[in-house]
Design a protein that fits this description.
Number of helices: 13
Structural class: alpha+beta
Low-confidence stretches: 1-29, 775-782
Mean pLDDT: 85
Radius of gyration: 36 Å
Number of strands: 33
Distance between the termini: 103 Å
Strand content: 35-45%
Shape: globular
Strand order of the largest sheet: 16-17-18-19-20-21-22-23-24-25-26-28-29-31-32-33
């Protein structure tokens, strides 16, 4: 008992000491009384009041506390009064939002409007936040082309006597009419036609397909981007002094806008002297001349100048000069319409990257973004390489916007890179219908994602069901296998074809493939693959007497093919989807016989050259060739040969030319050959009086080629074994001329061609009208 008494006295002395110390440390305005708070704690309100050095809360400190309390959005009214050293804070809290609803919106989805709202269910009902939300939603509508939208916020109080203390917030929306662009015009353009310039800008005009393209919406940001695109286009074609402005005229009657881009082209420049100067003792400028992409006499191209600066910076960084700056010095000589260009290599400020901070990537993993940079934390800071990394991120297709900025680091020679991205959807789901002459009517269901689970991997799956063919394809690709720039992929596939007007037998193939590819340079890439698949051919009982070679191929049954292959691709195309300039070439090689029943070696080549001929006409020439030969004493399996058709020479039916059994009383099937060559020439231009953004073009073409079987092929051997069989095998040239209509539609490529065969063999099968839709057929990439 005595011990408890002593302990009680000691605790009392300690408490008095603490109170005395606290009293000495507290400000004289130590009593702040909070009245009116229901949800917000009194201590939270008091925390906004900060005494000055003398321990008093003066009028200025009190006003600052009131402003910051309002800024929280929790209070609709805050009053502060004094009574001696006491401060009385009277607050009126904002109600709590119960239900938040949007009414009247049909053109824009709820999730798009609610995405960045400050008002949230369960949060405070703030007048300032509501007005800010209205402005945000109006901005969303403007981006969709609705400038006449009205949004009225309304609150619904709880019923009297109800225990519910929340308030429902409803935004009533009147969307109004979309502000569309009726016409896009150009003034001052002499070097390029309006049709060509319309293909440069992204803003489209209202037409019969606008409801599908949805590109005729007036958007001030898009117009500004179009001005930049026009400036860049002119600068890439030698017009270094070009100036572009825009003006929109509103038509009250049609409630639409006419946009006019005014262009002051200036002269077109060619390059005069092109040189390199080095201000660094460790850099020999003469050794860097092979890196230059610009040469004397060339038309000035701003894009090639930028590319040269980038490649010089990369080369110098690899050679131990990461801080070097490359400054292109341009000297105009208007009298001669030439530009002297000197790439000056200068010493830059020695800065290092302290951190790379990434913002906005809710789905995409950080490492997917970081691997697109040629630098890391702790490396030298080089603005050219940073800009290159920004372009690489934009090219991924994962983000709507990418912006890289810098902040000061912890030391004068340190910088922090801020990478801000805005993600967009990368998944896809399509149900497509189509038609091709060889496969008939078809439907395809496909699903895929180019940024699978935010890893940057590519996953695809598709199922096809058609009149004469059915199949499936499932693939997965890791573009950065083992954290290296290696694209490793795996694929499983299967395909069946049935007897049709173009073949008198059924085929079946299923198997898989693994591949690894890597870019060597920006224009050259290589890949290696291994394929294992089983294929075979069967007869349809409803068909008459098929050719003897087909019967013998069916008797062989199904067989496995095990092959390794490689491909080399070279491309300098200005646009992969709609090229106007450049070269695309690919060589494929396959070697079968490492296991399996089939033994053959096969090579195919495809080269295409595109050139802008002016007046919106694009010219293309193409050459193809292929050769396959068996080895190990085998014959070439019929299904592994080449079959001539419209993919080689238009105007001929599928399986329409090549070695053929012409024995009377049989189905006279194409037996396939093992060698072919073709050349093509084509001109494409927009259809007159149709807006270019509709993607409709007219084409004129000419095709020439041949396909045959050499000694040792299936056809010639069978002819030797069965003299009664009449096998036609000619190296005669097949050729055609024609015209076509091409539509790059939202449903996939659609093309109609009419080709007239000029030279053919009597046994060839022709088909003048060719039609493909939905991306299932086509002419080998035309």
């Amino acid at each position: 008992m005595r011990c408890w008494g002593i302990a009680f006295l000691l605790s009392g002395f300690v408490a008095l000491a603490v109170c005395a110390k606290s009293a000495a440390a507290e400000p004289r305005d130590s009593v702040i009384t909070v009245i009116g708070n229901r949800h917000a704690g009194a201590d939270m309100v008091r925390s906004f009041f900060h005494p000055g050095p003398d321990g008093k809360i003066d009028a200025e400190a009190a006003d600052d506390a009131v402003k910051r309390l309002y800024a929280t959005g929790l209070f609709s009214n805050v009053k502060v009064s004094r009574a001696g050293d006491r401060i009385l804070v009277v607050v009126v809290e904002n109600p709590t939002v119960g239900r938040l609803a949007l009414e009247g919106n049909r053109k824009v989805k709820d999730e798009d409007l609610k995405k960045d709202l400050q008002s949230k269910p369960g949060g405070p009902l703030s007048r300032a936040a509501i007005q800010s939300d209205v402005v945000r939603m109006l901005d969303v509508y403007k981006r969709h082309g609705y400038f006449d939208t009205q949004i009225v916020p309304k609150t619904i109080e709880p019923k009297p006597g109800s225990n519910n203390t929340t308030v429902d917030l409803v935004f009533e929306i009147k969307e109004g009419e979309k502000l569309a662009v009726r016409r896009v015009g150009f003034a001052g353009n002499h070097a390029f036609s309006e049709t060509k310039l319309r293909s440069v800008v992204k803003t489209g005009t209202t037409n019969v397909v606008s409801f599908l393209l949805n590109n005729d919406v007036y958007d001030a940001d898009k117009i500004e981007n179009d001005r930049d695109l026009l400036r860049q286009f002119y600068r890439d074609h030698g017009y270094a002094d070009v100036r572009v402005s825009s003006e929109g005229a509103y038509d009250v009657a049609t409630k639409s806008v006419t946009m006019t881009f005014a262009i002051d082209e200036g002269p077109q420049y060619r390059l005069g002297k092109v040189g390199l100067e080095s201000g660094l003792k460790t850099v020999d400028a003469e050794q860097l001349h092979p890196v230059l992409h610009t040469q004397t006499g060339d038309i000035y191209d701003a894009a090639l100048v930028d590319k040269t600066v980038e490649d010089l910076a990369t080369t110098l960084a690899r050679n131990g000069e990461p801080f070097a700056n490359i400054v292109p010095k341009v000297v105009r000589k208007p009298g001669r319409q030439t530009i002297d260009l000197v790439y000056a290599i200068e010493g830059g400020k020695r800065l290092y990257i302290e951190r790379i901070e990434i913002h906005g990537n809710a789905r995409t993993r950080d490492e997917v973004i970081r691997r697109e940079f040629d630098f890391g934390e702790g490396d030298a800071y080089n603005r050219v390489l940073v800009d290159r990394g920004e372009r690489h991120l934009k090219a991924l297709g994962y983000f709507k916007t990418v912006k890289i900025t810098t902040d000061r680091g912890s030391a004068p020679d340190r910088v922090v890179l801020n990478v801000a991205v805005e993600e967009e959807k990368t998944g896809s789901f399509f149900v497509q219908g189509g038609y091709s002459a060889s496969d008939g009517a078809m439907v395809q269901i496909s699903v895929g994602d180019t940024n699978f689970l935010g890893t940057g991997d590519i996953a695809k799956a598709s199922v096809t069901y058609g009149q004469y063919s059915r199949g499936f394809d499932v693939s997965f690709t890791d573009p950065w296998f083992l954290n290296q720039h290696l694209a490793a992929g795996i694929e499983a596939f299967g395909r069946q074809t049935f007897a049709s007007p173009y073949q008198a037998f059924n085929t079946e193939m299923y198997g898989g493939r693994v591949s690894v590819g890597t870019p060597i340079t920006d224009t050259l890439g290589v890949s290696t693959n291994y394929s294992l698949y089983k294929q075979g051919l069967s007869l349809d009982p409803s068909i008459g007497t098929v050719s003897l070679p087909i019967q013998q191929a069916a008797q062989m049954g199904s067989y496995w093919v095990s092959s390794v292959g490689n491909s080399v691709t070279y491309s300098t195309l200005d646009n992969a989807k709609h090229p106007t300039e450049g070269v695309w070439a690919r060589v494929n090689n396959d070697f079968a016989g490492l296991g399996g029943a089939a033994k053959f070696a096969r090579t195919t080549q495809d080269v295409r050259i595109y050139h802008d001929l002016g007046n919106d006409v694009i010219g293309m020439v193409r050459g193809q060739g292929g050769y396959v030969a068996p080895w190990g004493g085998q014959q070439l399996p019929l299904l592994d040969g080449f079959f001539g058709g419209p993919q080689l020479v238009r105007g001929f039916a599928p399986n329409g030319f090549g070695p053929r059994d012409i024995t009377p009383g049989t189905t006279m099937d194409n037996l396939g050959g093992n060698a072919y060559w073709t050349t093509s020439a084509e001109l494409q231009a927009p259809v007159p009086f149709i807006p270019p953004d509709a993607g409709l073009k007219v084409a004129a073409f000419s095709d020439v080629g041949s396909l045959w079987a050499t000694s040792g092929s299936t056809a010639t051997n069978l002819a030797a074994l069965s003299p009664a069989q009449q096998i036609a095998n000619s190296r005669a040239i097949r050729s055609s001329v024609g015209a076509g209509l091409v539509w790059d539609s939202m449903f996939g490529p659609i093309r109609v061609d009419y080709a007239y065969p000029l030279t053919k063999q009597p046994y060839d099968v022709t088909q003048r009208l060719q039609f493909t839709a939905g991306g299932f057929g086509g002419f080998g990439g035309y």
